[in-house]
Amino acid sequence: MREVYNFKAIEKKWQKAWEESNIYIVEEDESKEKYYVLEMFPYPSGKLHMGHVRNYSIGDVISRYKKMKGFNVLHPMGYDAFGLPAENAAIKHGYLPDKWTYENMGEMTEQLKELGLSYDWDRQVATCNEDYYKWMQWIFIQFFNNGLAYKKESPVNWCPSCLTVLANEQIVDGGCERCGTEVTKKNLYQWYLKITDYADRLVDGLDDLDGWPSKVKIMQKNWIGRSYGAEVLFKIENTDLNIKVFTTRADTLFGTTYVVLAPEHSLLKELNLSDEVREKLNNYVEETNKKSEIDRSSTNLEKTGVFLGIYAENPVNGKKIPIYVSDYVLMGYGTGAVMAVPAHDERDFEFAKKFGLDILPVIKPEDDSVDVNNLTEAYVGDGVMINSGEFNGKHNRTVIKEVVETFSKEGIIQSKVNYRLRDWLISRQRYWGTPIPMIYCEDCGWMAEKEENLPVLLPKDVEFTGKGESPIATSKSFQNAVCHKCGKPATREIDTMDTFLDSSWYYLRYCDARNSEKIFDKKKVDYWMNVDQYIGGVEHAILHLMYARFFQMALSDLGFTSGNEPFKNLLTQGMVIKDGRKMSKSIGNVVTPAEIIEKYGADTARLFILFAAPPEKELDWSDDGVEGAYRFLNRVYKLAFVAQEKCHNNDCSYTLSSKDDKELAFVLNKTIQKVAQDVGERFNFNTAISSIMELVNAMYKYKELPNFNEGLFRDAVNKLVLMLAPFTPHICEEMWESLGYEESVCLQSWPEIDEEALVRDTVEIVVQLNGKVKLKMDIQSDMTREDMQSMLLEDEKVKQLVDGKNIVKVIAVPNKLLNIVLK
RNA sequence: GCCGGAGUGGCGGAAUUGGCAGACGCCCAGGACUUAAAAUCCUGUGCUCUUAAUUGGGCGUACCGGUUCGACCCCGGUCUCCGGCACCA
Hints:
Shape: globular
Radius of gyration: 34 Å
Strand content: 15-25%
Helix content: 25-40%
Number of strands: 32
Distance between the termini: 66 Å
């Protein structure tokens, strides 16, 4: 062992050794308990950033720790490799996206290996590999065959100048990100997945996910937006037509003074309107379509609308009420029509004021704090019913149910649950994604490609111009197909899938990544699943995590896997920032992993990033902090060197002879206990590291003592190296070897705790007067409350403290404190 | 607007179940080593008054109040910042 910590040589040496010995390859092993730790796989942008380092360092510590604790650990890595940046690069450079993507993946793999992460690379997946997207297509076909995938017409964002479809992220301030042209809508037939069928299970399942941050669960709940209410039928005068509305406030039904339809409502075509109104309506609908993209983000839109000149009947009191069209009613939610109760809804109130419509209060506050007959704003609180016939005088909350019960008998109202969640639009008019394996025959309609023909490969004879529908449309070979039913010429779907599909099941494929016969062997999946610990950025709190849960549920229903929830525990790590701001090129505050590894090595980078903040919090990058982490590793390295010099054999047996020995043994074992807790249970790596630092400080003091105990010191060094190994594997492997061990530190067990060393003869307690600390003293440990109290009250120092004053009360907490309350 | 979360020294952060606030690290200061510097090692380091003193006291976890022998922690209210959703009927 050299005296100087040469991280460059050490890290290279061990990375090579680990790779050559296949130390991270795992197999199913029924004799061991499994542990599946997974970090969200990256998009192969080419360069690793600090966010990646943080994410993967966290996963690596957990993985290595669990392995030391005897688990059979699955810790895989791969790439979420389809997506827009590769396609943009293709447009820019004029070659296919695969070149750019595969080069980037190669670079990133190298960087990941430089960090010393314990991945089983044999299980690597890349979603753009044929042997991956083949199974993606296979899943889509299972969904299609089971009614979970369907096609319908819906609008996309369209740039009239580039003649191309834009993703939401490609719209900047209502304009195309490339040319700035105002974005319009265009209707296309697109594929959907029926995620709404799973809305209830997706909400209810959250309650059992104890290992998820409540923040994420609430976000998903809000996103799905389940609300209980009722559908009410309003008859349109002089017709057989009804308007169906959804409401969560059936109690306000008597206060309905008009009805509003969304501009896109299908009923509008069927209504018999005057020419004048019809023209106004058409103009309004056109206006709405135009402004939707630009003004969507602006808050407090002024209410606009058109009176249709016709009336409906309030089913509960027979009142004649006008029918309006307004864009404040959304077609995509509920029935696309609402009953308006201006007295008790802010939006309706605003609209009614503007159009001079009746405002009829039906609820008044119990304390009459608001005069509901002269409202200046909607009264949205609870209270007592008025103007509501038989319900008058009752509390409105109880009336919600009663109204539904009463009028459901007459068939005008019906309980109904609504969701904010819509079905998942998965068609993308893009090249670099999984081709949707569907064929269209004019006579027979849509059909799935046959399983033996999978994968439907991405064509190579395509052009990337940035214009037109999709580069795939430029392929001559791709679109031609044959109908499986009638044998006539047919066409192939040219759209590809949203890349969120690819990442919705990769954790399953890792369980059996090289299977060429099947998507995966169910036995293997059953062995490894669920993911015991999932780690990633909070930006995926809603979409990715919800889609993955949906896939797991659907695949489970179809019998391919078991269980509803893929991720038992979730850790969402915070961002890495510098000087209070996000690292970004434009601010010029980016620190790259590469430069840190070059200057200090991977171990230092890992250690700092885990030490600087608890994982779920933001991490403020500090160059001085990195320096400190590096200093610490040098101190540790020196301890191993001292052990070699001072301890003349590998013998770790010893007896604790002095007080100093006992103290060091205590600190050592306390540290083992604390680190195990912090890493294994709390994921507080920062405090785990700080307690290891305390141990190191204690060892520095100990090594200078005249009555230095070789065996004890040697044992402490060994255990220190073992405890630190999950955090900084390279330096620990080097020290472990120098200490004379042949088997890799990665394969060692977590050090055992010597319970006896944790027992202390004395313990420091605090004496308080009226809750204020006055004295600290050592007393015999584990005294009973009574013994402690009577002994301390007899103590001279304590007596002095009390000074003959009147003791009102004494609180004694064993091994902790004594509080004397004086008058 | 609605729903979450947070607020602790000069800085990052600790305090796990209501029981010593500020662990650990950074910064800074002093000392040892050195011809010198760097590195390293050691010591100090919440604020404030007081003292010959490393003496003695007061204040202190965003702010105001409450519960308690005792509150960073629990309760009520206020402010600020961050995140998510946003005309969802």
